[in-house]
Sequence to fold (306 residues):
Amino acid sequence: MLIIGENIHIIAPKVKAAFAEMDATYIQELALRQVKHGAHMLDLNIGPQRKRGVEVMEWIVDAVQEVTDVPLSLDTTNSAALEAGLKRVRRQAMINSASADPERLEGVMPLAARYQAKVIALTMGKSGIPTTADARVQMAIDVLIPKAMELGIPMTDLYLDPLVLTVNGTQEHAPETLNAVRFFKQLTDPPPMTVVGLSNISNSVPAENRSLINRTFLVMLMAAGLDAAIADPLDEAQNEFVRIVQERDTSTGLGNLLVTLYDRTAAIEELEPSDVDVGDPKQAEVWKTVQILYNKVIYAHSYLRM
Fold:
């Protein structure tokens, strides 16, 4: 599982202030903290940066590369800034992101081909995000994969993103996202790669519940065939869920439940009540969260207390 550290993001107040002042110290510290906690790649989200895009991208790429050699994901809608960053990276970069919108597709995919970069391709067009897994898969079949093939981008460098939406108000998308990941892995031989912005599943959820929802959904996504996640590597509880599943550590009740959840999801089955010791608070929390992600119980901020 490739973890792409999400924390250098312009919406974070400290990051935004560092960008405004061109203060490399905080950015470098945040980069190193993410790498120390297991990030395999760092996402550098500078926002649109319509006026200073090239300058900011060059500055942040140089700043991060001064302290770490992990690959970088360049995250902006500014194509000139993307190209400026691609010219400065020392290792194969990732572009975040192209989409099926013709303007975005033609502006970004050729850059990935020219600079031999990995590219995230969002399954959305001008009209927005399709509501079903089938429609997202069809967009990949009709638009995204053919464009990558036309440009000579190998499937191992194409990361299809089904787009995760929050459980708060749009939880019906969670099962569709899982199915889209499954279907993406069956489209070509070799198959395209898959990626999600994991934290989107808990947008607008109270802070105390976000990690639980994120990490539970990550286990399910891994079982469906997910290759990479843009996620918070500083979340130790999330890192532990990944470790348990990857090592198949069933030495605890929670570990046994997570491995069972993984296996049942991989087999396109659902977790059963008999799989859970509801007397164990940690297992009970996972069970209740899974029911939300199955879209069987309506999400409420108080769902763990119900």
